[in-house]
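Provenance and format

Records in this collection were gathered into a single text stream. Each protein contributes a sequence line and a token line. The two records reproduced below are adjacent in the stream.
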Amino acid sequence: MKNHELGKFIRTHRERVRPEEAGLRSTGRRRTPGLRREELAQLCDVSPTWITWLEQGRPVTASIETLAAMADALRLTGAERHYLFSLAGKLDPAAEPEHISGVDAVLASLAHIQTPAYVLDRQWDALAWNEAAQDLFVGWLDQASATAPNLLSYTFLSPKARKLIFDWEHRAKRLVAEFRADCGRHVDDSAVQPLIADLCRRSKEFAAYWRDYDVTMREGGVRQFRHPQHGLLSYEQTTLYAAVRGDLKLVMLLPH
């Protein structure tokens, strides 16, 4: 599964890069957008056949040096580069160290946080949340359920989410890009794959955004909501990660 995801990711981004952006001359009529496989191979110092096999999802091995050259050639952002290395099962030597907090402190802090806050796991199920989050997220954290409420399922499948989330289309598209960055090396996980398949089947928007292969880190920023009782609400989102359980994250919405 990772080989196929890696191949699709590389091809999608290869087709987005113009030759002149990669320092190449654009010659002749081009039947396909972006770089040709031969051009990407030239930039990465590998054979065109190797690029073909990689994009077809064959079990070929990419060295750290080749992945770094490919990230440069495809003009990948930091999040996209991280995703590339994750899919290839390699550690990026240029990666910045993560600054994350302890799990116990994260879980214990929920009860003391006055603004909306919740904890997500790897597949973005909400494991815990405070009263402020329960009050804010109508149709998600205020509902009794036998299973952990999932943020992606709520966003794409609940009519209440579309009413609550300001500029829903923009936020939903970004959410998928953030999830792709977050699940990276675990994209074929037995818990993550069924979630992706179910959302692709039940939501045409999620399926389209997932096929875009956009990757964005959870960088925070302003989040706005049209609450049925409280009107328009605006927050600054901050996400903290746990050191001993890197799959857990504390999301806080601070008054903006």
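Adjacent record:
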Amino acid sequence: MSDILDGTASEGETARARLTFDLDADICVVGAGLAGLTVALEAARLGASVVVLEGRHVGWSASGGLLGTVMPGFGLGLKDLIARIGLEDARELWDLSKEGADYVRAQATEQQMPGIAVTDGVLEVSNVDAGDRLISELQVLSEDFATEVEGWQIDQVRARLRTDRYFHGVYFPKAFQIDGRKYVHGLAELATRAGARIFEDTPVVGIDASGIRKRIVTPSARLRASHIVLAGNVHLGAPSRRLSETLLPVWRYAGITEPLGDRLSDVIAFKGSVIDTDGIDQFRIVEGGRLMWASPETTWDARPRRQAAGIARRIRTIFPQLGRVQIEDVWGGATGQTVHGMPQVGQLRRGLWVASGFGRQGLATSAMAGQLIARSILWGDERWRLFSPFELVWAGGITGRAAGHLIGLWERGSSAAAGALARYRERLREQERIREERLAEANRLAGMRPMRSQPPPGQPSPRPQRSPQPAEHPEAPVVAGPGERSV
């Protein structure tokens, strides 16, 4: 999968031409990632003329390198979301995220995207013993947000994942995972069939969003459209620098191991995706008995191959039984994270739309955003206003990246310390349990020893017999006391 990053199309993927002539369209989408392609697909299906401009190639950067986990939710925690906008609006946003997951499942079929490899089930595991928090989360998800979930106790989690690093878990049976790379290219094929036109190697160098017909400038052509959708994330650059600076660029890399054979099935018996609650580890088993594993996030770019050793160390930390594993391929890309933890979805000004900020949001959220914007443009769907409380906030530039890096290190360190403390306490409880069992067993054995026989009730206790005094020897001499004489 490393060819995702080198700017070339892989075997079996369509190479698309650059835009070299002037063009008019109803909608121009800037960026051929997951959100942009979803806008293009849905708008074309609804009858609009759509042009997609991509500076590199379809699925470049993060959209082509996802692990493919699809589940409802946002980067902002559910309780924080409720506190920010209230329960009713939080429910509506959550329903939108579920619609996004349903949309992905509807597109990701073998008929439309051969080899997409859909598998069900996502398990969110805790790095600490958090039973009370688990119960609270389950109640909110099932009762307030109508989401099917199961709570897994520690023994149930460890029966599937043989490591002492994880404690309780929340299982989402209707969540699923797909081949993320095939999905993004499958979206492009579906959009093309629906009538959208996709141009690669066509960066946007200028945008004039004034007037009814907006103007978009590329190095070799110009385009006019009634609506522009900015779906380029942190890569928008000069044409929309103000927007791109509201996003903190975050890189995440993933690796895939050599085939691990029986030793993998002996250690991991769960076939879906596993995500820890601290957002540090994410992994799943893929075809051929390989382990796909995502590294912790970083705010600085690096060559993917340099991350291989770190990914291997992380695997060995969680599952030491696997021993040393060889990482055969590494890939990655940059996403944009917002300060408030929610995606940027909606209309910036008349005819100018945004769909970005999908770092930590998941694949379902980008699908939801693309579908929602297409329907907003063509049907007048106003639900995008639910995202209005999450305004554009400057991410701090270089200072923000440095701060984000330090915060990430602190969070990972805090998570490691909390996990170590939780495992230490667990060992103490186990030692105390063993001591109590030994004490109980000793008391039980003491109670089984034969006791001295007692007389039947009503009978006197036998008098204790005195030990017989030694008989006087008949020939022993008698010694006279004072004033006596011997005989």
